[in-house]
Amino acid sequence: MNRLFGRSKPKEPGPSLGDCIKGVDERAGAIEEKINKLENELRKYREQMSKMRDGPAKNSVKQKALRILKQKKAYEQQAESLRNQSFNMEQANYAAQSMKDTQITVAAMKDGVKQMQKEFKKIDIDQIEDIQDDMADMLEQAEEVQDALGRTYGMPEVDDDELAAELEALGDEIALDDDTSYLDDVVKAPAAPDREPGADSIISGNKNSIETDEFGLPKVPTTVKTT
């Protein structure tokens, strides 16, 4: 049968969105190049017209410039249409890729849950609780051992009343040490002299006061009156 009718050729996969986007972008790029060329020609015609006087020659150049301008407008519309097509396909491609990523994420989460369930089956909750109870018992026993090791032996028995009396006496001694009444005499001491030792003084009691020197002797007048 295959020899009579031949084998059907396998269908080739259709173009992907990425291929379509690439083709549209290439077409838009080619049109952009044409627009740039027309823009350069249009600029030359404008410069040429600015240097010409009104007349048939200028009108001829003007007609060429108008034709170039119409072509430029047409190419701009085509380029804009291609950009819109490319944008729409990019949005569709992004949505499709997002769906694929979502499916991959969901599959990974399912595998993770299965792995967690598999590992959880290996854990015995009762065994963990038994371990916790054993740890609590061991810690309690360790605390009892520490208390036993911290006991004191051979301490003399002392009456609590005697200890209280000794503590009260110790408080009285501390109060005496803190007493500062003996400083009152120091505070009441006479004030320090406000003059330096040996300073000049005046002997009073006579009718005429006599100045004395640093040794308490009458000063000798520096000038002697002559008659």
UniProtKB/TrEMBL annotation:
InterPro entries, alphabetized: Snf7_fam (IPR005024)
Keywords, alphabetical: Coiled coil
GO annotation, biological process: late endosome to vacuole transport via multivesicular body sorting pathway; vesicle budding from membrane
Pfam families (UniProt xref): Snf7
Region (Disordered): 1-21, 190-227
GO cellular component terms, semicolon-separated: multivesicular body
Stretches assigned to coiled coil: 21-92
Family designation: Belongs to the SNF7 family.
Matches recorded under PANTHER family: CHARGED MULTIVESICULAR BODY PROTEIN, CHARGED MULTIVESICULAR BODY PROTEIN 5
Protein name: Charged multivesicular body protein 5
Species per Swiss-Prot/TrEMBL record: Glossina palpalis gambiensis
